[in-house]
Amino acid sequence: MTITIKDKAGAAAMRLAGRLASEVLDYLSPFVKPGITTNEIDRLAHLYMTQVQGTVPAPLGYQPPGYAPYPKSLCTSVNHVVCHGIPNDKVLKKGDIVNIDVTVIKDGWHGDTSRMFLVGDCSIAAKRLCQVTYEAMWHGIAKVRPGVRLGDIGHAIQVFAERQGYSIVREFCGHGIGQKFHEEPQVLHYGRPGTLEVLREGMVFTIEPMINLGKRDIKDGPEKDGWTIVTRDHSLSAQWEHTVLVTPNGYEVLTVSAGSPPLPDFVPGFAPDSVAAIAGVAKT
Ligand code: MF3
Ligand code: CO
Ligand code: CO
């Protein structure tokens, strides 16, 4: 297999899928409050995708080799859950942090994005982890332009997160995306500058660092559902995800919508105050 390059029409289709994925998160935001269950969030999202947007929830029934079919329409990863948490009947409570990861399919093209949500008032430690993880993702995005290598992206994320005393999960990574959910290449969130694949115009991939407050080690969750991953030391874990297109002189973030959070100060670009994709020129 090789990395797919999106032409103008492919990029336009990915832009639409990306915006729709982000709009699912916008729609869910007001519901993410103490007392709601993650199953209810899943139900609301499923209805919004299928009845309002005319999109297909990519996770539902998704079955990579060696996995059981994923049973829900999105992932909800609460507190020490690193990723792939399956919605259930537990209620969210004040002080929880939850990652909601949405992937939609529109006209056969995938948009994949996740955000952290603070449930009511949260500890300073939890808020800081979520903020630093958001900035870590953006340190990776800001590197993207033709000629740069994947190792440069991973390195930027790793250096920033580790400097804050956090650790990067290594077992899961970003991925190429398009007419398939998970395509080549793998996008590691750690690495060495000047190594791995050279970026080319038209590539589309996700950047989705998982960052732990404690050690980087992970294990299967106690549910033994084949999906849920937790931190081995039970420390909090956060993740953000965007889908990014490589443009002639930088990048375009495809998974943006009216409710996208503002860009960190260090990112040169346009504030996402419209539904237009965020175009950035990576610094050389
Ligand atoms: N959305 C996840 C990602 O970012 C993948 C979830 S697979 C699922 O790659 F089946 F759990 F949904
Ligand atoms: Co992804
Ligand atoms: Co995702």
Description:
With 284 residues, the protein is α+β, with helices and mostly antiparallel strands. 24% of the residues lie in helices and 24% in strands. The chain has helices spanning 8-28, 38-53, 124-141, 150-163, and strands spanning 56-57, 75-78, 81-83, 97-106, 109-118, 167-168, 174-176, 183-187, 204-207, 210-212, 218-220, 229-231, 237-239, 242-247, 250-253, 278-281. Strands 1, 2, 4 and 5 form a 4-stranded antiparallel sheet that branches. It is globular. The two termini are 30 Å apart. The chain binds 2-amino-4-trifluoromethylsulfanyl-butyric acid (MF3) and cobalt (II) ion (CO) (2 copies). One cobalt (II) ion (CO) binds next to loops.
Count every beta strand, where a strand is a DSSP E run of 2 or more residues.
Answer: 16
The whole-number mean of residue pLDDT values reads: 96
Number of helices: 4
Q: What is the CATH superfamily classification? A: Creatinase/methionine aminopeptidase superfamily
Runs with pLDDT <50, length 5+?
271-276
Q: How many structural domains?
A: 1
